[in-house]
Amino acid sequence: MSGGIEMREAHFPGKAPIEAYGNGGFRFADMSHRGSLLCLPSGIHGWKATDARSLDLGDFQSVLAEAEEIDILLVGTGRDLLHLPQGLRDALREKGIAVETMATGAAVRTYNVLLAEERAVAAALIAVD
């Protein structure tokens, strides 16, 4: 038996609406997470992204791995709407994923609606304070 605490990557193995956001994190499924999130068909995962201006294709590898199960990806870019680089949008579109960027609050609300409609939706949500 080791004496340390084992830290694991944040992961909730299911789909759940986002109950709240702000203060640098999110609440969902009666849990809270500090930092950004990827909401994918495989579940809700912690995401290292902190600034939409620095996003690149590497930040979306988990999304691409589940592309066959995703029709639309909502990207919450923080407090303000920022557009993703065209090359990144094109790479996601080549995998059959439509991309919509919006401020994180709008992305959370839209994600919840599409999830309730049982649409093939995913979300990449940058945390806001």
What does this structure look like?
The chain starts with 10 loop residues before the first strand and ends with a strand. It is of the alpha+beta class. Helices cover 21% and strands 31% of the residues.
CATH topology: Hypothetical Protein Mth938, Chain: A
How many DSSP E strands? 9
Shape: globular
SSE run:
EEEEEEHEHEHE
CATH class category label? Alpha Beta
- CATH architectural name: 3-Layer(aba) Sandwich
Strand content: 25-35%
Describe the largest sheet.
6 strands, mixed
- Order of adjacent strands in the largest pleated sheet: 1-6-5-9-7-8
- Unreliable runs, pLDDT <50, ≥5 residues? none
Question: In which range does the helix fraction lie?
Answer: 10-25%
Q: Give the integer mean of the pLDDT values.
A: 92
Give the tally of structural domains: 1
CATH superfamily: MTH938-like
Number of helices: 3
As a whole number of angstroms, the C-alpha radius of gyration is: 14 Å
The computed structural class is: alpha+beta
Measure the end-to-end span: 39 Å
